[in-house]
Amino acid sequence: xxxxxxxxxxxxxxxxxxxxxxxxxxxxxxxxxxxxxxxxxxxxxxxxxxxxxxxxxxxxxxxxxxxxxxxxxxxxxxxxxxxxxxxxxxxxxxxxxxxxxxxxxxxxxxxxxxxxxxxxxxxxxxxxxxxxxxxxxxxxxxxxxxxxxxxxxxxxxxxxxxxxxxxxxxxxxxxxxxxxxxxxxxxxxxxxxxxxxxxxxxxxxxxxxxxxxxxxxxxxxxxxxxxxxxxxxxxxxxxxxxxxxxxxxxxxxxxxxxxxxxxxxxxxxxxxxxxxxxxxxxxxxxxxxxxxxxxxxxxxxxxxxxxxxxxxxxxxxxxxxx
Length: 322
What we know:
Elements: H1 2-24, H2 36-46, H3 50-62, H4 66-71, H5 75-86, H6 93-113, H7 118-125, H8 127-163, H9 168-178, H10 183-195, H11 200-210, H12 214-229, H13 233-257, H14 259-282, H15 284-292, H16 294-318
């Protein structure tokens, strides 16, 4: 029955990992997928001529290494590459795939060395890809959160530059010089593209793809609308800045009010694990049937699934879109 005990510990680890990630990921800085402004921007992108879209794709592929270009032709690796870019990680796709695959292979060989069957070792080894995915998601949320916090200040800088008569290209450069990363590198990169004669629409579209946040969507809509219909861009940016600051103020208030609920959720979810560990240390014989009997393992599995679903449900309740 020792084998069942090992499986149980692995399942317990996965459950704790899922539960912790469900609450540790910040509510701010999330990627925007289904908002109205996102749909409008995609419609605007869909009417770009074929030559412009080809230029966008060629510009992206030129920045990749030869091996990365081959890997991104597959949907799974293409999404992985985009997620790495969103997280602001400097790792190449090839490096990530090779290193993770080597770790996975070493883990499989280690389990086989300890007489574990392949049908167990191989599925369990994919946990490293799961860990990588959660790490990238967390880094993405952290980066986008910081990007959004800096955005109102960036809009204020652009507004001042436009009021004194500077072109929008110079406003992008000023934001890159005055602020820190991650927003500085994004605006500096866009300034370089515009300096080389890049179309403003294409440059803005690339910024949105690298930073799909509410703030970026609002900014891109204001700039593209002004380009198509005219108007006072500095006044529009000032209004957008005030709206974003009000949004952050409301978001912080919601975060404060939901802190007690999050702490209660942590306690309720972790109590079963703590009780199990304490009882297992104090009286191991009392807990032995739980993982020595097949019925006990079924109960553990059902309980862990319920805990994970409950954690995700609580997270859904206490997190609000602002």
